[in-house]
Amino acid sequence: MTSRSSNSRTPRHEPVMLREAVEALAVKPGGRYVDATIGLGGHSRAILEAAPDVRLLGIDQDPQALEAARERLAPFAGAAQLVHGNFEAIADICEAHDFVPVDGVLFDLGVSSLQLDTPGRGFSFQRDEPLDMRMNPDAEVTAADIVNSYDEQRLAALIWEYGEERRSRQIARAIVERRPLHTTGALVNAIEQAVGRGRGRQINPATLTFQALRIAVNRELDILADSLSAAHGLLAGVGSRLVVISFHSLEDRVVKQYMLKESSACLCPPRTPMCVCGHVATLRLVARGALRPGPDEVGRNPRARSARLRVAESITATVTGRAA
Ligand SMILES: C[S@@+](CC[C@H](N)C(=O)[O-])C[C@H]1O[C@@H](n2cnc3c(N)ncnc32)[C@H](O)[C@@H]1O
User: Fold this and answer.
1) pTM, two decimal places
2) Hey, how many other C-beta atoms are within 10 angstroms of the C-beta on 149?
3) What is the pLDDT of residues 144-160, one digit of tens each?
């Protein structure tokens, strides 16, 4: 969890699967790496320290995260460039900063401990605050806009699809009955009215609905596959790596499908007598399944519990994307 250290303004922070992520990137001397979700800069710092003369471009849509990352990476000022932006524009951002091709791209998806712990951002159901949930405070749509404007059926579908919440219909009905809702506390009350308070070791009844709203507000699943493809297009050639850490099955599924597809030599349906698809594999899976954090890490940092890391490397000699 993030907390303020006594002698610095930089929040203390434990990056998830840090050793595994740096090893997966196979950081090499003089290499260029993109951290597409720089957050508090924990992974970036380890990448910069992993080999001599590494250069890094870090992206985040949250200016508060960038400020913390800038402070953490101050000793590497000449080697690291930080950019405020959405990773859906990763190709344009790298091109604009003359940072193509690259030896590796890291995505550490989802919400940061800073976002969860900073009062007033609306990500946590444990405090009563405005129902916001925007990672980028300049984005147009807040969680309040969604809960107050979607009709009941659309709300239920969103909570079901992005939260995998089996009580989505009851929750949507309670939200519609009680709106307008402008605070996280009011939303939690509506959810508890629908499904009760939850007991003992059950997860908080608001967890999945908050997850669903956060995913919708930040378009987390909508942009993922195209962003992976754009990042893949930046890779320098054979051996350069794409590494993705995800925190729930929905985003892991997108990552898995992307990597499986791009590492397959043929996409024809099974039992097609002869390949007609013309697909060419451009990636190789470095680890066949997803890597998981070890028990020590999960013990130290419960947020790591649901992490899955997938890694693939380029097997094509040239940059595959438009930014060659
Ligand atoms: C889990 S945190 C990353 C933590 C980071 N690896 C570290 O060591 O501190 C995810 C970060 O990605 C950012 N983020 C999520 N989606 C993004 C997007 N589409 N574009 C840019 N940044 C994004 C969030 O604002 C957050 O700061």
Assistant:
1) 0.93
2) 12
3) 999 999 999 999 999 99
